[in-house]
Structure prediction request, 169 residues.
Amino acid sequence: MGAAATVLATLALAGCGAPPELRQPVPTGTPSAPTTAPTPALPPATGLPSAVPTAPATPTTDAGLVAAPCRNGPSGQRVIQLLRGRSGVLPDDIRVQVRTGPLCAADWQYTVLEVTGHEELQVVTRGGPGTPELVTAGTDVCTVEVRATGPLGIRTLACDGGTVGLPGA
Prediction:
């Protein structure tokens, strides 16, 4: 009886075929064209740069958001000359050295000077390399004009004591 039961079970299972979830649907009607295009094969990842040229990245930040060393701004010596000139902030007989800057953000500049025998002097200027205009100078240069119209990079340095754009900061 054991052999008969085994044969009977085998015949019953053989007639069932594949389970419904594994069966392919039988097409009805006429075949249609595929609706998606074949996907091209991607080259294997090698860790090396792709040979496909890409567009160069362009900076998206505004020039005034970050204060960085000036490439096209006044030199430190030009800022000192401005302070010794008509502005009369620095007398000719006082020794002055540039400690920081000038740092530029948009057309504004921020410079810190070491003044022998005195506290360091912060200077905010604006304008071109040959014709900077003094905005303010002193130990606290966070004036209304700097806060209201200065670019963010200069405001951060002058008002928040930040280190925007300072190398190593």
